[in-house]
Amino acid sequence: MTATELYTKGARIWLPDPELVWRGAELLQDYKGEPCTLRVQYEEAEAPSQISMHLHRKIERKDTESEIQVKDKTSLPHLRNPEILIGENDLTSLSYLNEPEVLYNLKVRFAERNIIYTYCGIVLVAINPYEQLDIYNNDIIQAYSGQDMGAMDPHIYAVAEEAYKRMSRFEQNQSIIVSGESGAGKTVSAKFAMRYFAMVGGSQAETQVEKKVLASNPIMEAIGNAKTTRNDNSSRFGKYIEISFNRSNEIVGAHMRTYLLEKSRVVYQTKDERNYHVFYQLCASAALPELKKFSLMGADKFFYTSQGKNISIDGVDDAEDYQSLKDAMKLLGFQEKDIAMIFQIFAGILHFGNVKINAKDGESSEMAEGQDQGCFVHPKDPSIGVACRLFGVDESQMRTWICNKKITTVGETLTKPLTKAQAMFAQDALSKFIYSKLFDWIVTQINKALHSQTKTHRFIGVLDIYGFETFQKNSFEQFCINYANEKLQQIFNMHVFKLEQEEYVKEAIEWSFIDYYDNQPCIDLIEAKLGILDLLDEECKVPNGSDSNWCQKLYGKHMKHSHFQKPKIGMDTFIINHFADQVTYTSAGFLDKNRDAVSEEHVNIMKASEFELVGELFVDLTEDTGKGRVQALQTGPRGSSKQMKKTVGSQFRESLTLLMETLNSTSPHYIRCIKPNDLKASFVFEPKRAVEQLRACGVLETIRISAAGFPSRWTYPEFFQRYRVLALSRDINRKDFKKSCTVVLPKLIQDVDKYRFGKTKIFFRAGQVAYLEKLRADKLRACGIMIQKHVRGWQMKNKYKRLRTAALGVQRYGRGKLARRYAQYLRETRAATTIQKHWRGYKTRRTFHSVQHAVVKIQAAVRGFFGRRAFQKRLYEYKTRVIQSRVRTFLARKQFQKVLYGIVKVQGHFRRRKAKEELRLLKIEARSMENIKNVNKGLENKIIQLQQQLDSRKKENQDVVEKQNSAIKALEAEKDRLLISSTEGQKASNRLAELENELRQLRAELERERGEKQDLVSEKEILRQKYEQDVGVLKAENSSMKEELDAANRKLQEQMKISATTGGNEKWEEQRRMLIAEMESERQHHQRLVKEHNRLLQRFENMQGEMQMLTSPTKGHKRTPSDISQLSMESVASSVSPDQKEEEEKDDQGYGTEKKKRQAPTPPTAAAMEKQMKEAKPSPLATDSIPEKEDAEKTLPPADIDVALILKLQRLVKSLEKERDTIRKKFEALEEQAKEGTGFGDSAFKSLKQMLTDQNSLLLGSNAYESLKMQELENENDKLKREVAKLMESIAKTTNFNKGAKSTPAGKEFLARKLSMRRKPDKQEEEAAKTFHDQFEAMTDELERRREECLQLRSLLAERSISTHAVAKQSYGGQDEMVNEDNELTMAYKSQRDIIRLLEQQLQKTEKELKSRTSEYEAELQDLRRENDKQNKLIQHSLSLTSEAKIEATMQHEITRLTSENLDLREKVDQQEEQIRKLKKMLKVYAKRLKEGEAAEIQAELEKEETKSVENVAHIRHRERNYMGMLEYKKEEETPVVKALILELKPKVATCLLPGLPAYLLFMCVRHTDFINDDEKVRSFLTSTINGIKKVVKKHHDDVERVTLWLANTCRFLHTLKQYSGEKQFQTENTPRQNEHCLRNFDLSEYRQVFSDLAVWIYQTLIKNMEATIQPSIVPAVLEHEAIAGLTGSKPSGLRGRSSSRAEDTPEYSLDSLMKSMNLFLRVLTQHAVDPELIKQIFRQVYYFLGASALNNLLLRKDMCNWSKGMQIRYNLSHMEQWLRDNKLQESGAGSSLEPIIQASQLLQARKTDSDVDSVCDMCSKLTVPQIVKILNLYTPVDEFEERVPISFIRKIQQKLKERESTDTSLLMDLKFSYSVTFPFNPSSIALETIEVPEQLNIAKLVVRC
């Protein structure tokens, strides 16, 4: 950004002007960068309307254009800021920081908007308006109290509040430095600051220290202020007031220090000036009795008060001020005699000034005899006598020594007459001395009165000191004043510089040392060794020292000093270059003023005064000369005098040094007062006078220091929101504003030295913001042009389309008409041709048909004849062939049958012979063992071959699976690649579509906002309905849940603190260990369930085995053929002897034996499954299937405990336990069915077992095939067991509750299968899988068939080779042929086959049951899998949450669990309580009936009692006897009753009782006193009740619920007193029974009034409590809450150099917090049954406070007064109005109380043109004139495209509003206003006799119901 870019045509600049100081202009040509002449045009807007008439000069046409010479870049004129920055609250927020911009901004705010306060960094610039403004009342103080300095418009109260908060929060002493020239308003500013401290720091003590602090102001103004030409109430002294505070931040005292009182004003005033106010106040009140003895006259009669020739001040009543002065003295503890003596001394000074001294001429007859030449006082001069009388001194001595002086030599004392001039000087010196001493004495007394006995903790100092002064003639007073300002300016510069550098360090930006003006050389010139003050003191010590000698010494000593100059003309003046300006001082009078000498004789005379106070003023002046403030006039040689007293300059330097030390130890706050004009005209701004003061007070130096660094500061969100229009979409990162700014800004400003990136802000050099605003305006202008271009193009395109459409329409219609004519011609021609064609065709067809018909008939007759003849011939030949074929067939069949019979017979004989031979050979081969072995060997080889084929098929299957897995991985990789590419494509498309989306968003914004509003309304209605449904449930849980939540929050905070100290890793590790431990316990519980299930399953299988044994015809241990062959093979290789082996085999064979148990795998136990889960390693399949999931689990941190997951798992465990019980019951039922199905008892079972054992040997070989089949079935059963066990193991391993634990192999295998099943295979994979499945099914069938054949062969072989041989050996002596001699084996085989079939049927039934249970288990497994997936998703979701969200989710789940448990417990408690109540009533009924002997009625009574619904509250029930609705109590028990019913009653208990029950009970007590006619008792009881209610409300005034409780009960008691008073007007709704209960003896109407007043007091207490509760939420909710996102414009706050005084723990408030408070109030009021009408009045008052607070804050905040904020405020207020409608309170008038703030928001949104004046005035009917004008003056556009409010519009509004009849001219609404409250009579329908006393109130022993 170069000068050529900024200084272009149209650029606005500032040019110097001799009268206006600076004048605005506009460049008419571009600056090229070389020395040139630029043409400019002055702005005509700087017209007389903005400049006071006395400054306006006529500008002719030729003056509007001019030329300026530009030598180089340094001579370029100042640039002007954009209009959007004009009128800012802080001058340092301006982009171009220079003198003309500061001056112009102040002028706009002061002259156009009537705003007198403006920030300039840490300085508050206050311009004197010369008009009383209504901006300092208590409402304004309340509005600024507690607010941050930047939150409100600039105000002195904001500075005071900042100092007060910094003192209270940061424990730092504070100082407020108020400076400025005379008439700028320093005194008023300091007074308002102290008033603010007195208001906000007011203590509750009786001393009322704050009032005393304020009372010191009228005293000090009376004795220290005077009228000057510049100010009617100018402070002629400097003062520093320290306001002391205790640890509670309450004012406990104050202390005042004064500096350099202007004593010369006592004896001399220039024209149009006055002496100190106290003299004129005394003269104005001279007629008062207490002042008559002072012989006072009018002020024009005294010399000391009449020199200015103007003794009065417009608008000031001196007599009234005298009374204020006197009252203030009394308040500060001045005694009456001291007050009278003070006024007497002041009157004596006036009279002493009237003493006329005459010169002796030697001829005067009036000279006393014996008097020497000199001067004298006329003997008849009355003034000296009156003065001496008032001073209490000897008149003769005063007459003598006023004209003479004493000279002391070595040996004698001489008297020397004084000249007239010397005598008059001595006279004035004495008057000044007396006044200054009395002034100091009064200050001392004020400090004593303000001194506190309490220890001071901190203080706030207010320094009111003179500003820099320069006049035509400057003397010693101006020198001291300017010296003090040099010291103050040095502190100010250092403080501003320090704050600037601290800000840079805080934001961690690179910075260089800022060069600022250091006035230390000027200070050294004045106060250093041999400086001006030292030379002055030295000259004062020199005998015959003079002012001219001192001036010559200055010339000789400091001529080379840079800040000292000698004037060209004159030898008695010198020049000092101060920081503000060069000042020429006249040396005349410096020595005398520095000495401040008074005659020693005069001092001695005054010390001898008969009045104690007068003598006290002159005490210690001669006794301790080193401490005296004023030295006596030296009458002898200098060497003979005592030690020199301190001079005025030395004293002033010491006091100034002490002041600097005090200020350096505090945090300073600066207020610079500016005098806008010398005419004291209201709101008239003279640029010349203002710029002089701005230079003198250091404001421009602050600007220069700020401009030297980085004055403009924007936070990253503010910068992004304001200038995002300049950024490209690819450079924007909405999640990180800082990153976006760091990318965008270098592209906008190439010079990196023009800005810096801080931690939270961006720092800009001066002018950069204006440059950015220019870029933004150009961009928006280009966008506007682009939009206009497209819109206009669209319009022209539409116009062209319309013209083209019209032309085409005309052409279309013309061509259509021609076409229709031609078409008609074609149709007619075609019709004629068609008619001809059809007619000719008809004639030709008719001729053709006649010829054709004749020819066809002839052909038909000829062809029929020849066809019939050929048919007859063919029929004859066919019949002949049929006869021949039948005959030949019969002969051939007969021959074939004969031959076939012979062949069959021959074959039968031959085959019989061959079969017999083959049978014989087979019998021989059957006896050969070798053949059997070969057969077996062949079969075994075939089995092995089939097994190998099966293995190869399995391997192929596995290969196919692996290929599928690899294909899946490849597809997943391809999918990831496609996802990446699609993501990149999506990003690219998003970049292209972003601009289109923005346009669509803008178009849809209005519709979306409407939809959102409708959605919000509907959603709010739904939420309200849901809230009404839930509120009943939540009420019961509220008390317990609060305690549990508090405990949980404390525990959570402790955990967070422990986590913050020990570190995140330990926290996660501890939570992980806790989670693992809890999940381990849950897993062990699940494993126990699985173990129990396996045990039951094993038991079921054992019982099935026993059933098979019971139902089988063969019993005992039998050795099957397969077992025998196996054992025989084992016996060959075993080392055991054959006998032992045989014995073991006999004892251990059969199903269910130990050997079978060893062979068959048993289901795994829970311990084994747990061990496998811990030791198992992941399988390759599972590892390959879910690598990404494991990686994700490794990277994720251990999750917190998911309460919802635990609850679900607990429910799952409960369901599993129920299923276990169900299975156990089913199993027991099956056992019983099995026993019942066999039909045997225990004895029968044993006998059958013995019988089957005896028959074992007979049936050994008859069951070969069935035994083999049984063995195979057992093997299949074992296989199924293993599969079931595997399923159980898979369940145990896959159901892993610990997310962080590793998956077991089984679980990973199951998961891999599940994942592979979820993936949808492609078509080729489906075909391959189908082919493989078919092959596998075929192989399985083939294997089953072969296995069946093997079983049959093995059974045959075993039957023939072993069983038959064994039977033959045992029974037939080894003859095998004898075994089957009678075919008994066949019979046995058939019977065994039948038994086997029966067993097969039972086994099939068992298999079906097993399959059904397997399917059930599989379904259960599927459910568990789904549940596991759901839990995994929940765990993953929990892991993805943030720590705060996890905590919130955990708390929510815990709340849910506690709520469910609470409901369960509550149900149990209710059941128990119901049972207890029933039992109690049974006991009562039994006891009662037993006493009365009515036992027969007990049962009926019990049934009656059981039907009643009893609640644990006081309620209405049917009486067994007639009660009178009274409560009897003893006199001495009155206090306990009141204590129990009022003082100790808690709201939580009261909500469970009948609404208004305490009031009913209190009235029932009153009824009893009325019944017994005890007026003393009723008076005492009502008094105790009133005092008790007052006591409990005062004690708990901050408890809304308790105050509401007693407001409701007080109103109910008041209504009850009226209802039962017996007055007809209150009995209209009473029942006859209620009328019987009316009071009979007492008239309590007076007490009704007392209770009504008490209710009003409680109502006011409740309102105050509610207002205090919602007060912090009002401004954030109504004004600052941005419900409509993106609507509010962004501008920098500009508050620089201020460290925030906001406390770190300050809670954040929003609209939600305000709505929650309102809902809480309504809930409490409803719970305690407050009258509905009273609820409406309460919310009407609360809404008034809400609206008034919001409006008052709006009127004091310039940043809130814009169009967008007006819309936001109106939208926020609509929520409050909707809340009223939702709760049916719209008729309460609460909505109307919001009308002022609503109209203010509408005023911000309204058009502001001259044509809208009437509509604006009509719209703002509820706003006052000052409020409307204030809002219009504060209105500030947030964008330069918005228009400012014209001054003419505001003037027209003011003129229009003058027609209003309303006289309200207040600016702020009265926050203390309250509507009148009424309590409408609301009778109760509850009968007193039905009310019972509940036990919770603990008064059952104190009162008796009667």
Task: Provide the fold topology.
Layout (H helix, E strand, L loop, with lengths): L2 H4 L5 E6 L3 E7 L8 E7 L22 E6 L7 E2 L19 H14 L4 E4 L2 E5 L10 H7 L11 H15 L3 E6 L6 H15 L8 H16 E2 L7 E2 L2 E8 L5 E9 L4 H4 L9 H8 L18 H4 L11 H14 L4 H18 L3 E3 L15 E3 L4 H10 L3 H7 L2 E5 L4 E5 L2 H31 L7 E7 L11 H32 L12 H8 L4 H10 L5 H12 L5 E2 L7 E5 L4 E5 L3 H6 L2 E2 H8 L4 H6 L14 E2 L14 H17 L2 E8 L12 H11 L1 H10 L3 E4 H8 L13 H12 L6 E3 L3 E4 L3 H159 L2 H134 L1 H48 L9 H13 L4 H10 L6 H6 L6 H10 L4 H6 L1 H9 L7 H36 L3 H13 L9 H31 L10 H14 L4 H49 L12 H57 L2 H50 L5 H9 L20 E3 L4 H10 L3 H4 L6 H16 L2 H21 L4 H20 L12 H5 L8 H36 L30 H17 L4 H24 L7 H20 ...
Parallel strand pairs: 7-23, 8-17, 8-23, 21-22
Antiparallel strand pairs: 1-2, 1-5, 2-3, 3-4, 6-7, 9-10, 11-12, 11-17, 13-14, 15-16, 18-19, 19-20, 24-26, 25-26, 27-28
Helix pairs in contact: 4-5, 5-6, 6-8, 6-10, 6-14, 8-10, 11-12, 11-14, 15-16, 15-22, 15-24, 17-18, 25-26, 28-29, 28-40, 28-42, 29-33, 29-36, 38-39, 38-40, 38-41, 42-43, 44-47, 46-47, 46-48, 47-50, 48-50, 50-51, 50-52, 50-53, 52-54, 53-54, 55-57, 56-57
The helix content is 55-70%
Strand percentage lies at: 5-15%
Strand adjacency order, main sheet? 6-7-23-8-17-11-12
- DSSP summary: helix tally: 57
What average pLDDT do the residues reach?
Answer: 76
Query: Poorly predicted ranges (pLDDT <50, ≥5 residues)?
Result: 45-62, 363-372, 621-644, 1112-1204, 1234-1265, 1294-1321, 1493-1498, 1502-1520, 1692-1700
- How many strands, which pairing sense, and closed or not: the largest β-sheet? 7 strands, mixed
Structural class: alpha+beta
Output the radius of gyration: 59 Å
Give the distance, in angstroms, between the N- and C-terminal Cα atoms: 97 Å
Give the number of DSSP strands.
Answer: 28
Write down the overall geometry. elongated
